[in-house]
Amino acid sequence: MLSLPGIHCAGCISGVERALMATPGVRDARVNLTMKRAAVDADVEVTAEALTQVLERAGYEAHELDPGILATTENDRRGRDLLMRLAVAFFAMMNVMLLSVAVWSGAEGSTRDMMHWISAAIAIPAVIFCGRPFYVSAWSALRVRRLNMDVPITLAILLAVGTSLYETANSGHHAYFDAAIALCFFLLAGRYLDHRTRASARSAAQELAALEVPRALRISAKGEETVSVSELTVGDLVQVKPGGRIPVDGLVTEGQSEIDRALMTGESLPAYAGPGDAVSAGEVNLTGPLTVEVTAAGEDTALHRIADLVAVAEAGRNNYTSLADQAAKLYAPGVHILSVLAAIGWWLYTQDLRISLNIAAAVLIITCPCALGLAVPAVTTAASGKLFRRGLLIKDGTAMERLAEADTVVFDKTGTLTLGAPEPADLDTHSKQSLSIALGLAQASAHPLAEALTSALRKRGVRPARLEAVTERPGYGVEATWKGQTVRLGRASWVGAEAPDVTATFLQIGDAAPETISFTDSLRPGAEEAIAALKAQGKRLILISGDTKGAVSRFADTLGLDEVIAEALPAEKAAYVTDLTAQGAKVLMVGDGLNDTAALAAAHVSISPASALDAARSASDMVLLGRDLSPIADAVTTATQAKKRIHENFTLATIYNVLAVPFAIAGLATPLIAALAMSTSSLTVSLNALRLK
Fold it and tell me: Could you list the active site residues?
């Protein structure tokens, strides 16, 4: 299994599959665009590392995933099940309604009884099949002696069918088969809409755990052997080749290289690693082979500890009580009490159990929460559609409610407010000769700064100088000979320069003084607009980053951000967000890296860009589909409007009940009135939700 965080279209699918199928030993390759993964069936000698290199040469970022850790519930079985039951309910409802028209039009005697029996034959199997989600939920609640919204729903359906069957057997005038199946249809519609808003959410903790490299190359007295990471113990030596992901936490004992720590720190600038330096699982070895002594493996690694932080934070966020659940706590007991009181009152008045049960059924049907069941999902669906057109995907059903409550916005820097890609900033200050030599050296390296420099110089039309004996020195840079002189491009200490407080590489030609080529990270489109709009809305804005204090402070000044936290580790970011929450703040976290994942999960609500790591996107409630950050401010405004519409829908549902219940208690709620009342309330709530568009 390979993770493909950068794929986004059908062209990517065919490109990835074509590249994989062209690899010797690969028998089959299938890409899942929704999950951004590829499943590859290959011979034993084909390694995941080789496949990721094939894809990276083809222009696709790829990481190995451990399929044993990933969830097995990728297929949306519950969604398909709800949709099937919704379709059956609609078919049965329309047929029963057609038969009911004859009864409502004045059919009498045997004709009316025949219509009722045919309605029963259609409605009873349909109600048994379609209402199963409500029955299961109601029984689960009653088993632990509590009430939820599905208890009055189940009771209303069963009582409606039971009294209707009794009335039909005794040639009664009224039967509620149409109302019972209509209840199922409207409530299933609300349940399905609610499910669709949650369907794209996946467990970030599982994604993080799957990123752990499942195998390692262990060095022992027997030589080199590939083993499972679970077999490694403290003190073992493992070799990590250039381009490979480090499988354990440990100390470098041999070799020098550059390490990409973006997964852990979120910063794009690689770090030097040599003997005695610590490395962590999940980091990528860029330039030279390393021998690492294991200090922690498996569940003891820093990467796994971040996964644990995320799991704890997700569990805490799942305790959020939605507006619909809050309404259910008040609504369910009230409906039951009202229905029982109506039944007792009519029995005392008439001493007729049949009439009192009919009245109780009418009260339950009239008050059944169709409108309440649609109040939240109808608004959420309308708001989600509006924001999707603006470039923001809503993943969680309660995200809109939580976003409307946010009063503090915490931004990550690299990859979030910036694009996370370094660009040369001062090329015009260098001579053509220097740029030509720099290109000749840079194109021989896979270092991120060298690749950025190569791309920028080629766009300017610079031709590379003819160099001899080009050699890459892992951890230092690239060295060559030009016209008898030694030329170097790399670290400040290697060429005898003083390292500035900015991202830079250094060019030295012979004995001349080193030339500094500095790099900047481009501001993400819409970042300034988003921050200005959020300030205007009165939000508290905070910048938190793993970068150095100087770089973060200068960046914050350009955007007008006053509160700044630099050099923050992943656990510190999560702890800071948790502390803000403990102080009463409702935090919106915006981040993109593995180091942001625990903070994203701990926040009241969270957003990540589409370019973020899979785990960060999974931990977030919303995903920005494009590069532009400006939809964030729009999302806050839309969420506030959505919450207002939800409250309006609850008010409409309450007004409907206040007006309709007296008719039911007075015995005036015929099946026709019940069906019309339910439909009218549900349509009113849905139309009010559509005002968001």
Answer: 412
